[in-house]
Amino acid sequence: MIWLTLPALLLTMVGAQEVQQSPLYAAAPEGASVSLVCLTRGALFGGVFLERRWPTPANVIYFEDQVEPTVDRAFRGRIAFSGTQSNLTISMSLLTPNDSGVYACRAASERRARSPGTMVAVTGEGQRVKSLSGDQSSPSMVYEDMSYRGGNQQRR
């Protein structure tokens, strides 16, 4: 009876793996920073990955308590950590428009539990909204950099 109970208990612990992340969306101008929070619950076999899922998939970091973090070459010198692998804040600094994308926390576990992710939008300094029409009374338009143009004034 004990032999059946112990494996069932272990499977329950592993099956309860959960990863949460905040915020869901972060916007920043070029050169600024954003911070993502990864929360994990349940049994981990290692640490936490931050994956870039879109537009180009990559492992950005791997963080495990008491182990030197691994940081992708493109982000070296621009990543800071605080907390533990169960409550980890990852700050990305000196952002460029190429850093825009979807970033998701993933637990190093058998189930590979992952959060839905954070959409990070970095606007470049030279990005401006342009009207497709010379008519100043045309409707406002929103483009991929999420800038807004209404009437004769441009707002950032």
Molecular structure report:
It is a single chain. This protein is mostly beta strands. The protein has a domain at 18-123: Immunoglobulins (Immunoglobulin-like), CATH 2.60.40.10. 9% of the residues lie in helices and 42% in strands. It is built from one helix and 13 strands. The protein has one helix spanning 2-15; strands at 18-22, 25-29, 34-41, 48-54, 58-63, 70-71, 79-84, 87-92, 101-107, 118-123, 141-142, 148-150, 153-155. Strands 2-10-9-4-5-6 form a six-stranded mixed sheet, with no helix packed on it. A four-stranded antiparallel sheet has the order 1-3-8-7, with no helix packed on it. The protein has a three-stranded antiparallel sheet with strand order 11-12-13, with no helix packed on it. The longest helix has 14 residues, at 2-15. This is T-cell antigen CD7.
Q: What's this, in brief?
A:
With 156 residues, the protein is mostly beta strands. Helices cover 9% and strands 42% of the residues. The chain has a domain of 106 residues: Sandwich (Immunoglobulin-like), CATH 2.60.40.10.
User: Could you name the CATH topology of the domain at 18-123?
Assistant: Immunoglobulin-like
Structural class: mainly beta
| Beta-strand residue percentage | 35-45%
Distance between the termini: 66 Å
Helix content: under 10%
Topology as a string of helices (H) and strands (E):
HEEEEEEEEEEEEE
Say how many strands there are. 13
Enumerate the spans where pLDDT stays under 50 for 5 or more consecutive residues: 1-14, 128-156
- The gyration radius over C-alpha positions equals 21 Å
Mean pLDDT: 79
* Count of DSSP H/I helices: 1
Question: Shape, please?
Answer: globular
Strand order of the largest sheet: 2-10-9-4-5-6
CATH level-1 class of the domain at 18-123 = Mainly Beta
Per CATH, the superfamily of the domain at 18-123 is Immunoglobulins
Q: Give a quick account of the main beta sheet: strands, pairing sense, barrel closure.
A: 6 strands, mixed
User: What is the CATH architecture assignment of the domain at 18-123?
Assistant: Sandwich
GO molecular function, one term: signaling receptor activity
GO biological process, one term: adaptive immune response
InterPro entries: CD7, Ig-like_dom, Ig-like_dom_sf, Ig-like_fold, Ig_V-set
GO cellular component, one term: membrane
